[in-house]
Design brief:
Layout lengths: L6 H11 L22 H8 L14 H14 L3 E5 L2 H12 L5 E5 L4 H12 L3 E5 L4 H6 L5 E7 L11 H11 L2 E5 L4 H4 L9 E5 L13 E5 L13 H6 L5 H14 L5 H11 L2 H20 L4 E5 L9 H7 L6 E6 L5 H7 L4 E2 L9 E4 L10 H6 L6 E5 L5 H13 L3
Parallel strand pairs: 2-3, 2-4, 4-5, 5-6, 10-11
Antiparallel strand pairs: 1-7, 6-7, 8-9, 9-12, 11-12
Helix pairs in contact: 1-3, 3-11, 4-10, 14-16
Bound molecules: pyridoxal-5'-phosphate (PLP).
Length: about 425
């Protein structure tokens, strides 16, 4: 595998490096649940990590391996484990690496379900502090003797706060903490967390990497920067058998994927793999649509606020400019008092009222009433989520049609 070629070229030609049968240009969908060996020693060697191979598909198969290799190359890491969803990747990675009474410092602006699973882990004995990740000082102040990990997202969803990624990376390096970065909102096309010294990178493959709203998936990539030899929670058998740089990702594959069981299906892996071929093209278009639309909404008299890192009035605009290739496809906005956000959404005809993000189609959702409903008003206020907030995942439609749809919706309230 080589990283010498460009981003898209590398993705497009990576399946052929595995030499699929008959010169197929895609890695085929391997449906087999199990693999047979003529000489049983072959099976024994796979179980004992002496040779690479497949035994039972819960731990991986050639179709998921091909996708994992692609994600590894996109993130310029050393290895990736794929999961059935982004949430499975997050929950399984924490399960695989943490012990009760370990401490995690996490962003207070986490994706709602991530925040929720963190609460489950607190209930099970992990200590987790939620702090404002736009300010590295707050991360530093939360540090304790038993801190093992820092978990942040690049751009938060829905209010688009940008984490102080570089300064947090320096701090994690100094304190030898696992630095886990959820790169879903930016994707490796806009940003590679390895450049800010991330140890582990999470991607919800469901979003920009798959990109078409037709398959769920998730992944965790080891960047190769973390020294697993200094990490106390590696199981003795993995310490003995696995070379140092692969110990963390091996423990994630065994305790997270194999034991947790959140396996990506080969069919979904294939859909995501094909979708990923056009990520650069899709994101360029979605990001330029988003920038135009954000500017249009920002100056509209019926809008009270737009949350988008590409706007100069965004609190982390300069940080986002320095870190990311573009500003992403996701924004949120609030309407002026007197315009009901649910009524407004019903006036949009092209934009789909729907959850999800990173689809080719533009999707809109009222945040407080749906994805952040369970949290309650108090936590929403803490996370900076007003009741009238609408989240928009901008797709790749023609921009005039998107502006037209919003213009028509606004005119219903004149
Ligand atoms: C969607 C999302 C997830 C979860 O991914 P699923 O594939 O839906 O499980 C995690 N983190 C972020 C930032 C997300 O947007």
């Amino acid at each position: 595998m080589t990283n010498k070629k460009g981003f898209t070229t590398t993705i497009l030609h990576s399946d052929r490096l595995l030499k699929p049968e008959f010169g197929a240009i895609h890695q085929p969908v391997h449906n087999a649940v199990t693999w047979g060996y003529d000489d049983v020693q072959g099976l024994v060697d796979v179980f004992q990590n002496k040779t690479k191979g497949y035994a039972y598909s819960r731990q991986g198969n050639p179709t998921t391996t091909a996708l994992e290799n692609k994600v590894t190359q996109m993130e310029q890491g050393i290895a990736t484990v794929s999961f059935s969803t982004g949430m499975a990747a997050i929950s399984s990675t924490i399960l695989a690496l943490m012990k009760s009474s370990d401490h995690i410092i996490a962003s207070s602006y986490l994706f709602g379900n991530t925040r929720s699973v963190m609460q489950t882990y607190i209930d099970m004995g992990l200590e987790i502090s939620f702090v404002d990740s736009t300010d590295a000082e707050q991360i530093k102040n939360a540090y304790r003797e038993n801190t093992k990990m820092v978990f942040v997202e690049t751009i938060a969803n829905p209010a688009t706060q940008v984490s102080d990624l570089e300064a947090i990376g320096d701090f994690c390096e100094e304190k030898k903490l696992i630095y886990m970065v959820d790169n879903t909102m930016t994707s490796p096309y806009l940003f590679r967390p390895v450049v800010v010294k991330a140890s582990l990178v999470i991607n919800s493959l469901t979003k920009y990497i798959g990109g078409h709203g037709n398959a769920l998936g998730g992944s965790v990539t080891d960047t190769g920067l973390f020294n697993w030899l200094g990490f106390p929670n590696i199981a003795p058998i993995i310490r003995e058998q696995i070379r140092p740089e692969m110990q963390g990702i091996t423990q994630i594959r065994k305790r997270g994927l194999r034991d947790g069981g959140g396996t990506l299906s080969p069919e979904a892996a294939h859909s995501i793999s094909v979708g990923s071929e056009t990520i650069a093209l899709r994101l360029e278009r979605a990001c330029s649509n988003a920038l135009v639309l954000a500017g249009f909404l920002d100056q509209h008299p019926m809008i009270s606020k737009v949350y988008y890192p590409g706007l100069k009035n965004h609190p982390q605009h300069e940080l986002a400019t320095s870190l990311f290739h573009r500003y992403g496809g996701l924004m949120s906005f609030t309407l002026v008092d007197g315009i009901d956000c649910l009524k407004f959404l019903n006036e949009l005809k092209l934009v789909i009222k729907s959850s999800n993000l990173g689809d080719t189609r533009t999707l809109a959702i009222p945040v407080a009433q749906t994805i952040f409903f369970e949290l309650g008003k108090e936590k929403r206020d803490e996370m900076g989520i007003p009741d009238s907030m609408i989240r928009l995942s901008v797709g790749i439609e023609d921009i005039d049609d998107l502006i037209g749809d919003f213009s028509t919706a606004f005119s219903a309230f004149n």
